[in-house]
Amino acid sequence: MEQVEITTRRLRLRAFEAADAAAVQVLADNDALSRTTLNIPHPYPPGAAARWIGTHSRNRALRSSAAYAITLAETGTLLGSVTLTWINRTLAELGYWIGEPHWNNGYCSEAVRALIDFAFERLEISKIVAEHLAVNPASGRVMQKAGMIRVGSRRKKDRDGNPAEMEIYEIRRSARSLRGS
């Protein structure tokens, strides 16, 4: 599967490149960011960004996931990542993170909305699910701004094997078209 660039008023979502590893390493090696995610460890291991980026082309080819670098359209500055992971042909899971220096600017909401629209319009996805740590309500606000609806909660083990309360959201293509988005 070819990864098409997605642009918004302020952002460009594109495939990660090997040259992005240094910026990802710096952004991801942040305790405040780590505490808001289920999977990003702290400290972020040396070389982890390069290894992660190295998995993207194969995952894209297998249509198992597509990770997009969230960048500023004007400068190319890397802000974070937004990802779709295919569960089956028409169902995908959404994941995202924004580096702490870029929080509270609406970048994550803008990127998430753009990727959801793209998935519904171009990728034959009919339903997208996502979850966030209950202790990170800001992530839930991102999902709500994108039109996602909270459908429940569950306990799941975090990166350290500890139980974590998760809030679960979803959006369906039919609901998106009814809203006129």
What keywords describe this structure?
alpha+beta; 7 helices; Aminopeptidase; 181 residues; 8-stranded mixed beta sheet; single chain; globular; 32% helix
CATH-defined superfamily: Gcn5-related N-acetyltransferase (GNAT)
* Low-pLDDT residue intervals, each spanning 5 or more residues: none
Instruction: Give the domain tally.
Output: 1
Beta strand %: 25-35%
Order of helices and strands: EEHHHHEEEHEHEEH
Mind describing the biggest β-sheet?
8 strands, mixed
**CATH architect. name:** 3-Layer(aba) Sandwich
Secondary-structure-derived class: alpha+beta
Whole-angstrom Rg: 15 Å
Judging from the principal axes of the Cα atoms, what is the shape? globular
